[in-house]
Every structure is written in structure tokens, then in C-alpha cells.
Amino acid sequence: MTTEENTDAWVPPPWEPPIDGTEAEHLLGALGRMRATLRWKADGLDEAGLAHRIPSSSLSLGGLLRHLALAEDYYLTTKLRGEELVEPWKSLVHDDTDEWEFEADHFTAAETYAVFDEAVVRNTRRIEDALAEGGLDLVAHVDDGNGNHPRLRRLLVDLIEEYSRHTGHADLLREAVDGRVGEDPDEDWVPTWLENPSS
């Protein structure tokens, strides 16, 4: 008696975290999935779609993209390295107010997508550099006011938490724009930073 082998093995999408990996691979995989999910939820819209708000909230998909791009730079530049945020934020005329990125609807859709996509590429490199320098135990610059410093591990967990909170918001906002619902992108959808991984 012979058993026919199943040749239709599931091939995970490029943002799926590994089933069996190291701690760093799991954290980066979770972050990658959150980045891709949020980007897909906001994908393919014009300025009006990105600026759309529901009556009970001041959030928009464009605001979430800009906010999370800024959060990535803040966590991995200021908190990790102690460096001031300069570019691209100064050129974008960020005025250092807390709500700037949420309210800055004057950008074109292409500009908003570029702000987010470029932040993902930039901060993926920063994470890789930090891991090469000290691994997940690399001590961050920021402290709690009592001299206790988080490690890179904690900053990555916090960044994943930031994405998780706002990806739930993006679910509701996208459904309100055009009815798009669902947990995962279509099988043929790929975020721009995975289309052009060398950029």
C-alpha cells in the first residue's frame, strides 16, 4: 500500500513570522506582519480616503501611517540612540506638537505612503545594525528617570504594541472608507519594501 504525498505545501507570505525561530526572528516577524497588515489596510487610497474620519474619532488612515512612521524613527533613533529626530521630519515641517502627524492632511497620497514605506526600510536597517552591535540585550539610551535603561528587546515589544493598537483602528477606518474587511492581504499583495528589498 502506498501513500500519496501532498505536494500542495502551504507557502507563507513574506511577512509571516517563522513558526520555529529565534527570539529576534519572532520579534522581527511579528513587527513585519504588523507593518504589512497596517500598510495593506491603508493601501490604494487617494487623499480623501486617507483623510477620511468617522464621526466619533479624529483618526484617519493617513494619520496612522504618518504616526507609525514617526514612532518607528522615535523608538529607533531617539530612544535607542539618543539622537534628535531630524530628517525626514524637519523637511516635512513637523512642528513637534503631539498631534501633527495625525492632522497633517496636506500631503498627497503618494507622499504619505512614501513617508511610511521609507520609515520601514530605514528602521529595518537600524534594527539590523543594533542586533549586530549587541543583540536584543543592546542597552538603549533612554531611561526611566532612575537610571534604568531598556534593552532593544523592550523597544521592539513596545513598537509591536504601538502597531497592534493602531491596526485595530485601521480595521474600522478602512471599512468606513470603502467596506474593505479581512485579516490578511490578498495572496498577490506585497508591501513596497518587500517588492524592492534593496531600496
TrEMBL record:
Pfam families: MST
Domain of life: Bacteria
Record protein name field: DUF664 domain-containing protein
